[in-house]
């Protein structure tokens, strides 16, 4: 996430303090603080609805789309905490007169609060099936609208037409308009680039799709991803996939998709040549740097897909030495191994190294540094694969001199938790440790 975007969000939440502070001298400051928390939650939710639109320019302010997904999650979590505290801390003030709808607004606020709490929690509890989460996530905007109604008509120590009221109302309107755009206008409006499925084939455990443009097509850079939806076969819902082919003049696209869930399972069983497809994008900034600094590419499993596009784009391009580590667990059919070996033969600067864990081989930071001749500080490292592997390699390489800014990766996950499972495991292990320690103390022989 870009510091600029985070700073703007923090500023948006803090600006109301300027108007709330003078009111504190005349009203109950505790109740006023509760009202501020409610306003801050609405501001965060309004921003969150907006960043979900994937509007042009968002990546410039907030960073690549994968980071925006992470931002989207944490904005929801922080808004949830603010809403919870707003409900716990009494916000009622004596001497306030509300309009005819203030009583209804009070009840609607409770409905909005608990509805948003349930749906936001459902978003970070990752064992809930994707299709159920996706359906429930669509109605968050309805409860946000109820929260905005609560703000507009509840009794409060300022008017909706005061600067403070207008300020918070603007974020409420931003969120409502964004939700209407995403749920009503966008599905009916022409979107994306129209394509036709030209080729479907199985490559190891992956389904490869080659798409031909039905019109101008889409320009992209190696390493970027796009949202794909296919007409028919229940595949109309768009999902993000990395483009595994390098850009071509005729704008033919290639996706290499692993069966990782309901949608991808249905896709590999039902997609056929001739089907129409819509591709939206491209997105992402996972791209090769210019210059002759050494590069390390690490693709684990289906994480090899962006490096297929990287490797194809090397022809005729001057680069420094590149080491591609392809980490697999297969014994026989390794997807794209033959294609990558051919590319490594054609491009002098590219070296392919297959790391097969089924043969007892593991990629470590020590090996990478050794293969680079000990000079890791000047290298760029690109990683696409499992999160635990990424964290282990990154921490090891940073300790050996790699700059954090030269370790490139994408948070390519639509849903992630907030660490509750890790916290539960830590608490369980800690509890077992304390029990064992107490038992050992009790059984120690007296001196």
TrEMBL record:
Residues 190-289 form the FAD-binding FR-type domain. Coiled coil: none annotated. InterPro entries: FAD-bd_8, FAD-bd_FR_type, Fe3_Rdtase_TM_dom, FNR_nucleotide-bd, MRET, OxRdtase_FAD/NAD-bd, Riboflavin_synthase-like_b-brl. This is Putative ferric reductase. Its cofactor is FAD. It comes from the Bacteria. It is found in: Membrane. GO terms for molecular function: 2 iron, 2 sulfur cluster binding; flavin adenine dinucleotide binding; metal ion binding; oxidoreductase activity. SUPFAM superfamilies: Ferredoxin reductase-like, C-terminal NADP-linked domain, Riboflavin synthase domain-like. Keywords: 2Fe-2S, FAD, Flavoprotein, Iron, Iron-sulfur, Membrane, Metal-binding, Oxidoreductase, Transmembrane, Transmembrane helix. PANTHER family: 1,2-PHENYLACETYL-COA EPOXIDASE, SUBUNIT E (PTHR47354:SF8), NADH OXIDOREDUCTASE HCR (PTHR47354). Its main location: membrane. The chain crosses the membrane at residues 35-53, 74-91, 111-132, 139-158, 164-185. GO terms for cellular component: membrane. It is a multi-pass membrane protein.
């Amino acid at each position: 996430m870009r510091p600029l975007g985070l700073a703007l969000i923090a500023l948006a939440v803090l600006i109301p303090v300027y108007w709330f502070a003078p009111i504190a001298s005349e009203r109950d400051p505790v109740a006023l603080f509760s009202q501020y928390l409610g306003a801050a939650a609405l501001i965060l939710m309004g921003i969150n609805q907006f960043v979900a639109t994937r509007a042009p320019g968002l990546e410039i302010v907030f960073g690549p789309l994968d980071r925006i997904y992470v931002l989207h999650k944490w904005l929801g979590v922080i808004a949830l905490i603010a809403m919870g505290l707003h409900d716990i801390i009494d916000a009622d003030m004596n001497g306030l007169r509300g309009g005819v709808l203030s009583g209804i607004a009070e009840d609607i606020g409770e409905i909005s609060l608990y509805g948003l709490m349930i749906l936001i929690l459902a978003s970070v509890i990752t064992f809930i099936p994707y299709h159920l989460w996706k359906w429930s996530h669509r109605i968050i905007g309805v409860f946000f609208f109820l929260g905005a109604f609560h703000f507009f008509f509840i009794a409060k120590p300022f008017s909706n037409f005061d600067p403070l009221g207008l300020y918070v109302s603007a974020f409420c309107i931003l969120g409502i308009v964004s939700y209407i755009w995403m749920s009503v206008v966008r599905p009916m409006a022409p979107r994306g680039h129209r394509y036709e499925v030209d080729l479907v084939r199985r490559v190891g455990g992956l389904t490869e799709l080659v798409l031909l443009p039905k019109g101008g097509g889409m320009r992209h850079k190696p390493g970027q991803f796009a949202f794909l939806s296919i007409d028919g076969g229940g595949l109309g819902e768009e999902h993000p996939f990395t483009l595994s082919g390098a850009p071509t003049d005729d704008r033919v696209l290639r996706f290499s998709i692993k069966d990782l869930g309901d949608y991808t399972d249905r896709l590999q069983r039902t997609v056929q040549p001739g089907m129409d497809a819509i591709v939206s994008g491209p997105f992402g900034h996972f791209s090769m740097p210019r210059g002759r600094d050494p590069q390390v590419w690490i693709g684990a499993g289906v994480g090899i897909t962006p490096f297929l596009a990287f490797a194809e784009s090397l022809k005729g391009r001057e680069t420094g030495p590149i080491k591609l580590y392809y980490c697999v667990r297969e014994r026989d059919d390794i997807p794209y191994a033959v294609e990558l070996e051919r590319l490594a033969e054609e491009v002098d600067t590219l070296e392919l190294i297959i790391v097969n864990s089924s043969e007892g081989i593991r990629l470590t930071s020590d090996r990478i540094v050794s293969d680079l001749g000990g000079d890791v500080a000047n290298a760029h490292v690109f990683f696409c694969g499992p999160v635990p592997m990424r964290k282990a390699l990154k921490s090891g390489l940073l300790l050996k001199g790699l700059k954090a800014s030269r370790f490139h990766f994408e948070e390519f996950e639509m849903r992630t938790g907030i660490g509750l499972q890790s916290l539960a495991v830590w608490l369980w292990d800690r509890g077992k440790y304390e029990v064992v320690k107490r038992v050992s103390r009790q059984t120690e022989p007296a001196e």
